[in-house]
Design goal:
Strand content: 15-25%
CATH architecture of the largest domain: Alpha-Beta Complex
Largest sheet: 6 strands, mixed
Mean pLDDT: 95
CATH superfamily of the largest domain: Glycerate kinase, domain 2
Radius of gyration: 22 Å
Structural class: alpha/beta
Number of strands: 15
CATH topology of the largest domain: Glycerate kinase, domain 2
Number of domains: 2
Helix content: 25-40%
Distance between the termini: 17 Å
Strand order of the largest sheet: 3-4-5-6-9-10
Low-confidence stretches: none
Number of helices: 14
């Protein structure tokens, strides 16, 4: 039996690759004749770069760039196994993970470091990019990315404005003369499931600003700043971002990718499955096993297991779900989607218990899931 093993990461305990390895061991213990094919997956959020590099036998490039507050930090971008596609996560250089709760301040955080990663990759000769927009600490509309690539953002005196979201209220003119011409020669596949517009009550500042440290007053200021940015972009390019779906992703970075980059936006899980050639693997698969740290109502909103199940359903290949925790309210709905639904935690196994040895616990749960599936098939 050929089994595709395609979990997401189990956040806080196992990367997608380590989760796939644990599942593969459980499969072999349950049925030594089975052939597990490891395809660690992700949904476009944090961890997507790691999963794609792992799954394609790619590599990482490490360097130091500016973090959200301007301090030098170590960061990476990934090169896929095709040796021509570069994967950059905005969170890697400009993410919340680099800040304590006290340091979160979207008035001044900048996406400049993400632009530096892009410059380095361009200097190395890469022209095909996959960009993950999840996990940003910024609300600067992607202005920092533009600044790192040579775009001049000028105030009414012709001086460059400071970095950060609040400074955009000072913006008067965008000077593209020094914008890196190699961008026009490149392709950008943007992984973003967020459909929020640039500004307004459903925009980047109002919806995502508070989790990045913005107060109610800050949100109003940031929304006015992004509105000014959008006004000037429209004046100079003819493109209105104000209410464009997806422009609000990653603090508005989705907007600048739509206007200034040759980009194509897709849902994160679709990009990952396409990169993994998942449909081709399904053609000869007998079973798929997937999972995540916690399965709940959000699973149905484009998360990895849901995307995996939908793709497999098209090919009539059954899918088993093995997750760390499954909330009771969604378990019944999940049974309509999956041939088997299993959780590591139970009445006798707490989350704390599972976290003590997550690899072994996932292996054992997978083993039992496979045995249960085989017994059902034989009945």
């Amino acid at each position: 039996m050929k089994i595709l093993v395609a979990p997401d990461s189990f956040k806080g305990s196992l990367s997608a690759l380590h989760a796939a390895e644990a599942m593969a061991e459980g499969i072999r213990e349950a049925d030594s004749t089975s052939v597990p094919i490891l395809l660690p997956a992700a949904d476009g959020g944090e961890g997507t770069m790691q999963s794609l590099v792992d799954a394609t036998n790619g590599r990482f490039v490490s360097l130091h760039v500016e973090g959200p507050l301007g301090h030098l930090i170590p960061a990476r971008y990934g090169i896929l196994g095709d040796r021509s596609t570069c994967v950059i996560e905005l969170a890697e250089a400009s993410g919340l993970m680099h800040l304590t709760n006290q340091d979160r301040n979207p008035l001044i955080t900048s996406s400049f470091g993400t632009g530096q990663l892009l410059v380095h990759a361009l200097n190395e000769g890469y022209r095909h990019f996959i960009i993950g927009l999840g996990g940003s600490a910024t609300n600067d509309g992607g202005a920092g990315i533009l600044q790192a690539l040579g775009m001049k953002l000028l105030d009414s005196n012709g001086e460059e404005i400071p970095r950060g979201g609040a400074a955009l209220q000072q913006l008067h003119t965008i000077d593209p003369f020094f914008f890196d011409p190699r961008i026009a020669e490149s392709t950008f596949l943007i992984a973003a499931d967020v459909t929020n517009p640039f500004i307004g009550p459903n925009g980047a500042s109002a919806v995502f600003g508070p989790q990045k440290g913005a107060s109610n007053v800050d949100v109003e200021l940031l929304d006015r700043s992004l509105s000014n940015f959008a006004d000037i972009i429209e004046q100079q390019t003819g493109v209105s971002l104000h209410q464009t779906p997806g422009a609000g992703a990653a603090g508005g970075a989705g907007g600048v990718f739509q206007v200034f980059f040759p980009s194509n936006f897709q849902s994160g899980i679709n990009i990952v499955l396409e990169t993994l050639h998942f449909d081709e693997h399904l053609e000869t698969a007998d079973l798929v096993i997937t999972g995540e740290g916690r399965s709940d109502s959000q699973t149905f909103s484009g998360k990895t297991p849901y995307g995996i199940a939908q793709a497999a359903q098209q090919k009539n290949v059954p899918v088993i779900l093995v997750s760390g925790t499954i909330t009771p309210d969604c378990r019944f709905a999940l049974t309509d989607l999956f041939a088997g639904v299993h959780a590591i935690t139970s009445d006798s196994v707490t989350v704390a218990d599972a976290m003590l040895n997550p690899f072994r616990m996932l292996k054992e749960t997978t083993k039992q899931a496979i045995l249960h599936f085989k017994n059902k098939e034989e009945c």
